[in-house]
Design a protein that fits this description.
Blueprint (H helix, E strand, L loop, with lengths): L1 E7 L8 E6 L2 E5 L5 H9 L9 H7 L15 E5 L5 H4 L2 H4 L8 E3 L1 H14 L7 E3 L4 E4 L5 E7 L6 E8 L2 E6 L16 H8 L3 E7 L12 H14 L7 E4 L5 H13 L3 E5 L1 H12 L10 E3 L2 H14 L4 E5 L9 H6 L12 E4 L7 H16 L3 E3 L10 H11 L4 E4 L3 H13 L15 E4 L1
Parallel strand pairs: 3-4, 4-5, 5-6, 10-11, 11-18, 12-15, 12-16, 13-14, 13-15, 16-17
Antiparallel strand pairs: 1-2, 1-19, 2-3, 7-8, 8-9, 9-10
Length: 445
């Protein structure tokens, strides 16, 4: 018998965690944080380092895994789809609840996890196991995990297939079908079609943009948008500052490529950029450190900015943290003079991202843009392509794998309804074989 528990990520966007019990053995998929809760806490003067695991749960920042406390001794593995914080960043806090369960991820994901644990000084008992994309690993004699390569806004993202004697459970958080990725391999659609000829008993699936018609644009589209702004806009006398998600290695590669075309010295500012680039290099994905100068620490950033102003700002391109207007990010500190820097009129600031649709992010980005506008800089926003599947990608996925049951995920119930509507178009019935869930729900299939 298979039982699924929707621990986190079904009542909010983030905090993803799902447990699947097959007879008396359990596999956990993802352990993520809900960043808005942490951001609010810190903006009110709190320090996350002062919070215990229980404190983080009470804050609503990490999943409440006490709902599966009766499964605790049965957990055989913790498996991750990719390295984003809303999928992995709770692992250092919750992992020790399941000390005998190895943590399994792609090389990049595991490098990011190792760095998190090391930076936070956490004594994590779990062993790390690397599994390459399009590979399998035996968890127990009854259970096997398979990584199916996907595309997303960070490299080495996978769908997880959990194989058992009852059939296969596919966990598809997060993905898009991008056949022209800038970094990494194409999605393994052939394997999905093969699984569809077998017995997929459940599909747990990213439904964040299930209401959006069409197909998610390729990363190549975002690359062309970025190229148009960086190479097609007059900037010969101005500084260029660009920001994106630190884990978006493909977007960072495009920024480097176009900065080199402009013959500019490229400097990366910020700790999270250094962390993800270091992890990507250790995973063998890229080699940025021999092409750009990477400066994580505030004092060194201040020193470099003085050098840039002295030598001539038009010779440089800065890539920095701050795409969401986060209060402790480099761009925010530059804008409000906590990092001393004199913006000049018509300097370029490029937001190669979208604002994550949470009130705290929207407010912070608005404040940052207001501060930048007062300095008369040129602002370019939404130079981006989503990493999440739109409605027609979801239709294709369901058609390919032909699941007996569907569980919308990565969005609260009011967002899950759109995937339910799509599933009903394809012959499924709500509460019979497509299910709206909240956090902490158990369902046998």
């Amino acid at each position: 018998m298979i039982e699924i528990c929707t621990i986190g990520g079904y009542s909010e966007v983030g905090k993803n965690m799902t447990a699947v019990k097959v007879d008396e053995e359990v596999v956990i998929f993802d352990m993520g944080v809900f960043l808005p809760k942490i951001i609010n806490f810190e903006e009110e003067g709190g320090d996350r380092r002062d919070l215990t695991t229980d404190g983080l749960i009470k804050l609503g920042a990490i999943p409440d895994d006490t709902v599966i406390k009766h499964w605790k001794g049965k957990v055989k593995a913790i498996v991750f789809t990719h390295c984003h914080l809303d999928h992995v960043a709770a692992a250092p806090y919750l992992g020790n609840n399941y000390p005998k369960a190895p943590m399994i991820g792609t090389p990049f994901t595991i490098e990011v996890l190792k760095r998190m644990v090391r930076d936070d000084g956490i004594d994590l008992k779990n062993k790390f196991k690397v599994l390459n994309v399009n590979s399998k690993i035996k968890i127990t004699k009854n259970l096997e995990v398979e990584f199916i390569n996907m595309t997303h806004s960070t490299p080495q993202t996978v769908m997880i297939a959990l194989h058992s004697k009852y059939g296969t459970v596919i966990y598809a958080n997060d993905f898009k079908f991008d056949n022209n990725p800038v970094v990494g391999k194409k999605p393994n659609l052939e394997r999905l079609k093969e699984l569809g000829k077998e017995n997929v008993v459940a599909l747990i699936v990213d439904s964040l943009y299930s209401q959006r018609d069409g197909k998610t644009p390729s990363e190549k589209v975002a690359r062309e948008m970025l190229k148009d702004v960086m190479l097609g806009t007059e900037s010969s006398e101005n500084l260029i500052i660009a920001t994106t998600f630190a884990s978006h290695i493909a977007r960072l590669k495009s920024m480097i490529d176009f900065g080199k075309v402009l013959n500019r010295k490229i400097v990366f500012f910020g700790r999270s950029l250094e962390k993800y680039i270091d992890s990507a290099e250790k995973a063998g994905l890229v080699k940025f450190s021999n092409q750009v100068e990477i400066i994580p620490q505030k004092n060194d950033i201040i020193k470099k900015l003085r050098e840039i102003e002295k030598q001539g700002r038009a010779k440089y391109m800065i890539v920095c943290t701050g795409n969401q207007g986060e209060s402790e990010s480099v761009l925010k500190k530059m804008a409000d003079s906590r990092i001393p820097f004199h913006f000049l009129p018509f300097d370029h600031v490029i937001f190669s991202c979208r604002t994550i649709p949470e009130p705290v992010n929207i407010k912070n980005r608005e404040r940052l843009e207001e501060e930048l506008k007062k300095k008369k800089v040129r602002i370019f926003t939404d130079i981006h392509s989503s990493g999440h599947c739109f409605r027609e990608d979801l239709r294709d996925l369901i058609h390919m794998v032909k699941p007996k049951n569907i569980f919308p995920a990565h969005v609260p119930p009011d967002g899950q309804k759109y995937l339910v509507e799509l599933a009903e178009e394809l012959g499924y019935k709500k509460n019979k074989n497509v299910f709206v869930s909240e956090n902490g729900v158990f369902r046998k299939i």
